[in-house]
Amino acid sequence: MHSLDSRVDETAVRFAYMYLLGRNPENEAVVQNGAAFERNIRQLRHDVMQSAEWACTINQQVQDRMISSYLKCAIEKFSTINDKGASGEIMVVQTADAERYSGLLAISSQFNRKYADIHGLGYQSYVGVKRGAFPHHAMYNRIYMLNDLIDEGFSGWVVYVDADAIFSRPDFPIRSYLASLRDDGKIMALHSVYQKDDPRYDWWNINNGAFAIDLSSALAQNAVRAWRGIYTDLYSMDDYRQASSWDSIIINDQASMSSILRHFNMEPHVHLGDLQSTAGFVTQVLRAICDQVSPDQEMEQRKQQLMSIGQATYGN
User: Fold this and answer.
1) Does residue 1 sit within a domain?
2) For labelling, which of 33, 38, 65, 230 has a CA lying 20 to 30 Å from the CA of 137?
3) pLDDT digits (tens, 9 = 90+) for 74-113
4) What is the domain extent for residue 44?
């Protein structure tokens, strides 16, 4: 029988990780070190609860409850929006902060503009931070850009791609692809992180580095308004000024999009595909491919790879 003053053994360490952090220890060495060096279970609990991971876990739980409550109200608030007359317009959208990712955008945009020209698409980009205090807050720009398009009366498809992504199949028939989705009642095309036969699969577990959304749809407009509302209504500028790191008090845009998808019951209206792979039509140069070098070297390698992909696809 264990009490808080009991000596720590390996079972106690495993239980602390599972109960407090919701995961298994990284390896057996962590378990053995915990059993060897923690004075008692009380100290083990204290040390785990002082960790950055614990703070992040609790913060995420608080944010999940806060956003869930907000979205329940948002569904009612924006339910009066009606469908617009659908247009055949398609707008490509990209964005980046001015300090780090703008260099990637400068490369990808020249090739994505070529793709847009080939297929008669519009193109918009924004460099800077629309709401926030640090460069990484540019992740929210896409939300505000979508909202601005709604305000301007845009009623076509928006195709968003990250600054480190290129349309890598110039012949991909984007117009017929999106038209068929609209005919099937789909208002979004998203990239699924896992395949359906993967035990980790959830339909709303997506990578939003590339997606398409039909802004003629009332449901799509509602979702965008609510998505924007999370970052405008729930967080003050003081919150943004305190959010100096990526895993800070403000929820990232991918997690909030997943919440939007679930709360607005969008599964029947979403097409899940494989947009960001060689099988799809978008190639993204992710940070993971350069994880053994300094941040500056990593960025230069990504720029070089992005330029190589673009030149191989579209020419110099």
Assistant:
1) no
2) 65
3) 777 666 566 677 889 999 999 999 999 999 999 999 999 9
4) 10-50
3-state secondary structure of 169: coil
Mean pLDDT of 118-142: 96
Phi and psi at residue 291, to the nearest 5°: -85, 5
Say whether both 36 and 178 belong to one domain: no
Instruction: Provide the angle, in degrees to the nearest 10, between the axes of the packed helices 218-233 and 253-263.
Output: 130
For residue 159, give the nearest of 175, 148, 170, 144 by alpha carbon.
Answer: 175
Question: In the numeric block, which tokens belong to residue 180?
Answer: 């068929």
226: phi then psi, degrees, rounded to nearest 5 = -70, -40
Q: What is the pTM of this model?
A: 0.79
Classify residue 146 by burial, with Cβ atoms within 10 Å: 0-12, 13-18, 19+: buried
Does one domain contain both 186 and 248?
Answer: yes
3-state secondary structure of 196: coil
What pLDDT sits at residue 2?
57
What percent of the chain is modeled with pLDDT above 70?
87
Q: Which residue has the higher pLDDT, 206 or 280?
A: 206
Angle (deg, nearest 10), helices 218-233 and 141-151: 130
Question: Pairing between strand 188-192 and 270-273?
Answer: parallel
Q: Is residue 278 pLDDT above 50, yes or no?
A: no
| Tally of CB atoms within 10 A around 244 | 12
Helix (H) or strand (E) segment spanning residue 301: helix 295-314
How many domains does the chain divide into? 2
In this structure, is residue 302 part of a structural domain?
yes
* 214, 263: one domain: yes
Residue 223 identity:
A
SS3 category, 39: coil
Q: Could you tell me if residue 107 is inside a domain?
A: yes
Structural domain includes residue 5: no
Same-domain pairing of 213 and 241? yes
CA distance 304 to 316: 14
